[in-house]
Structure formats: C-alpha cells, structure tokens
Amino acid sequence: MENNKSPVILSGIRPTGEIHLGNYFGAIQYFVKLQEQGHQCFYFVADLHALTTAMEDHIDVDKNSVEVVRWYLACGLDSNKSTIYRQSDILEIPFFNLLLGMITPEGELRRCTTYKDKVADMEGKRKMVSLGLLAYPVLMASDILFCNADIVPVGEDQLQHLEIAREIARKYNHHFSKKHKFTEPRSHLVEAVRVPGLKGEGKMSKSVGGPDNVIYLNDAPKEIKRKVMAAQTDLGPVAGEPMTESMKGIYKLLELCAPKAVYEDYLGRYERAEQRFYGDLKKELAKNILELVEPIQQRYQSPDCSVERVKALLAESAAKVRPIAKTNLRNMLDDMNFKHLAQTYN
Ligand code: TRP
C-alpha cells in the first residue's frame, strides 16, 4: 500500500568555493523548481563533505557554508517552504555515518568512479587522500537516510553514490530492521549539470580551467562581460562539420540563459556556416547572463540574505531537523542492539 505522505526531497551542495553558474544550473535552479511545485524539500550545505578535501585545498568551510545559504536564498529558496540547514548542525549524522559504515562493503567504495578520479587528480598534485574521501558515499547515505528522504535530485556523477545509499538501506532493512526501516531513496536525475566552462575545457569548474573558466554569481557585471567576451571560440563554422567543443560550450550556456528564439537564431547561423557573428553571439550571451544574475545579486545584498539572517535561520532549522534525526537514530540503536543507548539517548 502506498501511503499518501508527500515525498521528501533532499539535496545539498558542498561549500568548497564560491557559487557559480554551474552550481546554479546544475543544482540550485532545480531546488527552486521542486520547492515551487509544492514538494516537501530538505536542502542543506554539505559542510562535512567539504572537509574531505578542505585541509588540502585550504578552504574556509564555515564562511563558505554561510555563503552557500545566502545564495540559496538569493536564488529563490524560501525558508518558509523548504527546510534549509547545515549538515554539521545535525550531530546525529556522523553517528549514522559510523553505524552505516559498518555495513558498507569497502570494495564498493574503492570502485566508485568519483573516488578513483579524485584520487588520480590528488595524487598528481601530491595531495593526501583521506579516509574521509573514501567514505564519502557513506556520509552521503547518512545525509539521505537519516530523515528517510524519498527523492534526491542529483547530477549524473552522483548516481553511483545514490546506488550505494540504496544498497546500505536494503542491507540494514534486511539484517536489522525492527523498529526502524529505511526508505530506499530514488534519484531524480537533473539535466544540464555539465555546465560548460568558458575555456572550452569541460565543465564549469575552477579546478579545470582557472577562474576565467567560471562565472561566479558574485561576479561584477563588468567581469561577466569580460569573461564571456574572452571565452574561447573557433575560427568560424565550416559547412558540414560538427560543432567544435568550445562552441558547444558557448551554445549550451546560451540555451540555458537566453529565450529559445534567440538560441535557435544563433544555432541557425552556425548551421548555415555564416561567418563573423561570434562577437554578437557573445554579446547576446553576456546580456542574458546579466539579466539572470543581476536580480539574484540584488537579493543577495538585501537584509533577507544577510549573514546574520542566515545564521539565525540555520539555528532555527537545526532545532527543527535534529528531532527527526534523533528519533530515527534512537530506533536504529535499538535495532542494532545498543539498547542501553536507545533508552537513555534523547
Ligand atoms: N555529493 C554531492 C555533490 O557533490 C553533495 C551531497 C552530499 C549530496 N550529500 C548529499 C547531494 C546528499 C544529495 C544528497 O554534488
């Protein structure tokens, strides 16, 4: 029997740096859409996840976390509609992580593509690979399972992690479940996660192509124009040839930001192999990015998105979310034969 409780949607982003268009198109815009569709949404800042590389990357996780929430709000997340919180404020999550780690096969974690790629990258840079990085998917499973989330909007690169979360839930339910049963979370694959960089080098990420590869939501209009006008192009379309990678990136951004008719007009010009229109194309792209970003920047600067307001909001939401985590953890402790804790922990 289906129960008719509305599904819980949950997702988060890691506060590893400044928020950019890639974060917006690949995650935040979907968070807002799902919120506006009236779902019950939990959106958080995965600050503990940022720690998996923070020491090596010299990241100020505390500051970045507050900034992520400011941008969440500026982009349209509404704390009256969605529950917006910080992962580390829910102290139970690390305990879920510990317990769930005991039923996670280590080999599975080593086989994760994200892990292997990250290790290759970090070893190349002579950075330390932490145990926390290996266990990343267990912590992610804890984020999702602690509140029995039903649906997790994520990009393609996170699907493997979600599969691990489902497996952990199944294993727990099979071996331990008496008082507590985990929901097997489903993914909600979001498109356009691979927002292209401006340097024609894969996705919009600072680690891939440097700061000019990325448009930050906080970039000044002048800076946005400069970056777009400096974006890599090619020598011009050649009739019958497929589009070059750098132009694909520019067109993808235009498709994401501009009205359909504008995008199609420029696509037609490329297909007809017209020449000398890239300057106009970039001006059009810059204009559309600015139209998107400027109202967000205005809200970001408003008192509703201030650091003080965000800190107060995080305190409130922690007090709301922790009881959910506690109830589930208590039942889980009972199931896993820590009765002494289950009885005294509240
Ligand atoms: N791993 C996700 C990412 O890098 C962030 C994340 C952490 C997450 N915990 C999560 C996303 C739980 C969804 C659900 O994008």
Describe this structure as you would to a colleague.
This protein is mainly alpha-helical and 346 residues long. The protein folds into two domains: 8-195 and 317-344, HUPs (Rossmann fold, 3-Layer(aba) Sandwich), CATH 3.40.50; 206-300, Tyrosyl-Transfer RNA Synthetase (Orthogonal Bundle), CATH 1.10.240. The chain is built from 16 helices and five strands. The protein has helices at 21-36, 47-57, 61-74, 92-101, 106-110, 113-124, 131-134, 136-145, 159-175, 206-209, 221-229, 245-257, 260-271, 278-301, 307-335, 339-344, and strands spanning 8-13, 40-45, 82-86, 151-154, 186-189. The strands form two sheets. The protein has a three-stranded parallel sheet with strand order 1-2-3. Strands 4-5 form a two-stranded parallel sheet. Strand 4 (151-154), helix 9 (159-175) and strand 5 form a beta-alpha-beta unit. Helix 3 (61-74) crosses helix 14 (278-301), helix 4 (92-101) packs across helix 15 (307-335) and helix 8 packs across helix 9 (159-175). The longest helix has 29 residues, at 307-335. 39% of the residues are buried. The model has no long low-confidence stretch (mean pLDDT 93). It binds tryptophan.
